[in-house]
Amino acid sequence: MGFQELTPKELLGAGHAAPEINDTAWHVRWDAPDAPDASEVLAALPPEVEFHTSGSTGPSRCWQRTREYAWSEAGMLAGFVSAGVHGPPGAVVAFAPPLHVYGALATYLMPARLGVPVWYRKSYVGAMPEVGHGHTVVVATPWIFSLLLRNIDWVRSLGHLTVLYSSAMLPGDAHTLLEQAGSGRVTLVELLGSTETGGIATRRWSGGEPPAWTLFPDVSYGTESPSAGTAQDTESAAELVIRSPRLGHQPGQPRPADWRTGDLVEPVDARTFRLVGRVGRLVKVNGRRINLDETEHVLRTAIDCEDLALVAVGDPMTGEQIDLHVVSTPGTDLSEVPALLGVRPRKVHKVPRINRSKTGKLLHHQKTPVTEPVTQPRRES
């Protein structure tokens, strides 16, 4: 797959939401002598930049933020990927569509802040671009880790690779990439945020156990967030409430003062916290507390299937229960699910697909029809 050559002015003129900017592969040289400066980039953006939620937790909604705050956040991302001994990158290879807030900031604007060339495509198919042998940033979506493993020689040819990632829980391939690339050759820079808030927190690591999350420089805990030392375990973790000047607002509405993120956290200090899970993704079944995101990760590494999802459901007799949705293959074996899950799922739905947003998030309503009778996993004798 080739990359269409665009000038920075052509990219800005089309806009981040244009179909030709999201659906086709392109290459822009922000290091060109005639590339627009910061004032010209800002002037090319609309005064209020609009983004729409994915619809993973309800109807899609429009959220606006000023172009100045979008440009500011792109600068923070540029700083995150430039930190460390390897310094600023010399190139960006991006896979996050600019239509969404993460792609708009990281794919569309961050290379302009860095002043480096960027290659973009959203397809899994095609060769990796020739970017030289220096420090390179990949703007990743969940499936990109698998692509990088398939192109491990390209990864090893680089002076250093920084993978910028903002989505659901890291896939298992991310840990495999760190191992196969070699010691210290890849750095992960994770972002926590949403369409409504923009970036909230980040963490940077290259192996071992991931560190705690650190709030963005302009973000602070809201008045309702827990204080450090008050949440000692997942039983007492509290929802993260934040304050930020970059909070989005709906058209015609004022910007909110605080935002309830839906993330359950245990604060470490005034700037860092441990992420426990999502509100609604921590359930207690038969007295056992289960983090559905972490458990999905365990199941994916152990079960041969195309996709799977755990969905919390209510039960009139026992309260909270779990349903397993699985897109099976001929070799899918679900006999170990109860042992891996720690409880027996209420139901197992074998489905042709699982409805997800473009960034991989599980959509709130799974309307996919069941293609096989709903079955209980067989009991071990």
TrEMBL record:
<dbReference type="InterPro" id="IPR042099">
    <property type="entry name" value="ANL_N_sf"/>
</dbReference>
<feature type="compositionally biased region" description="Basic residues">
    <location>
        <begin position="352"/>
        <end position="367"/>
    </location>
</feature>
<dbReference type="Pfam" id="PF00501">
    <property type="entry name" value="AMP-binding"/>
</dbReference>
<dbReference type="InterPro" id="IPR045851">
    <property type="entry name" value="AMP-bd_C_sf"/>
</dbReference>
<dbReference type="GO" id="GO:0031956">
    <property type="term" value="F:medium-chain fatty acid-CoA ligase activity"/>
</dbReference>
<feature type="region of interest" description="Disordered">
    <location>
        <begin position="352"/>
        <end position="381"/>
    </location>
</feature>
<dbReference type="InterPro" id="IPR000873">
    <property type="entry name" value="AMP-dep_synth/lig_dom"/>
</dbReference>
<dbReference type="GO" id="GO:0006631">
    <property type="term" value="P:fatty acid metabolic process"/>
</dbReference>
<comment type="similarity">
    <text>Belongs to the ATP-dependent AMP-binding enzyme family.</text>
</comment>
<feature type="domain" description="AMP-dependent synthetase/ligase">
    <location>
        <begin position="51"/>
        <end position="221"/>
    </location>
</feature>
<protein>
    <submittedName>
        <fullName>Acetyl-CoA synthetase</fullName>
    </submittedName>
</protein>
